[in-house]
Amino acid sequence: MTRLDFRNLLHEIWLKSDTDFSGVWIIVCDTPICLPIINLREDFPTISGTTTEVLSHLSSTKSKYHDGFHIINQAGLIAHIAQYFSPPIVLNVNIDRGRPIGGRFAAAIFGSAIPGVLMTGMVSEGHGLSIFEDGYETLFETLK
Questions:
Q1: Cα–Cα distance between 18 and 28 in angstroms, integer?
Q2: Of 49, 70, 59, which is closest to residue 14 (Cα–Cα)?
Q3: pTM above the 0.90 mark?
Q4: Pairing mode, if any, of strands 24-29 and 69-72?
Q5: Sign (positive/negative) of CA torsion 11, 142, 67, 105?
């Protein structure tokens, strides 16, 4: 999965989401065993449809799976949903504090520096799309 592929996936999730969009946070990783994650839910929903369709549906405030990070592999297939993600703090990252950011933003940028993580990305409720690689925000777009 390239950065452009990932950007397009994030954008499509946002486009297909309902008005109750809660945002979406995704980790691209083929080896989720290396990630500091834990399930936020005890069960796993029945998944049918494309990755875009499933993650758009799960990103509704009405879904009990909207919180946390979802993990996909490089092929774009869903490996885990609704994960608490607690990466170690990376002291030398450059965070743009001129924009409103929160804990999941920080987790996404720190987590992108974990070996085995290709990228992390998010679309916030405020319609900002960001991609992080190796501890850097490599893409930011305001969505309208």
A1: 24
A2: 59
A3: yes
A4: parallel
A5: positive
Distance in angstroms (rounded) separating the CA atoms of residues 81 and 79: 7
3-state helix, strand, coil in the chain (%, to 5): 25, 30, 45
Give the CA diameter of the chain: 40
**Residue 107 and residue 86 in contact, taking contact as beta carbons nearer than 8 Å:** yes
Q: What digits encode the pLDDT tens for the residues 86-123?
A: 999 999 888 878 887 888 999 999 999 999 999 999 99
State the residue for tokens 């305001």.
Answer: 142
Sign of the alpha-carbon dihedral angle for 87, 91, 96, 101:
positive
Helix (H, G, I), strand (E, B) or coil at 55: helix
Backbone φ and ψ for 74, nearest 5 degrees, come out as -65, -20
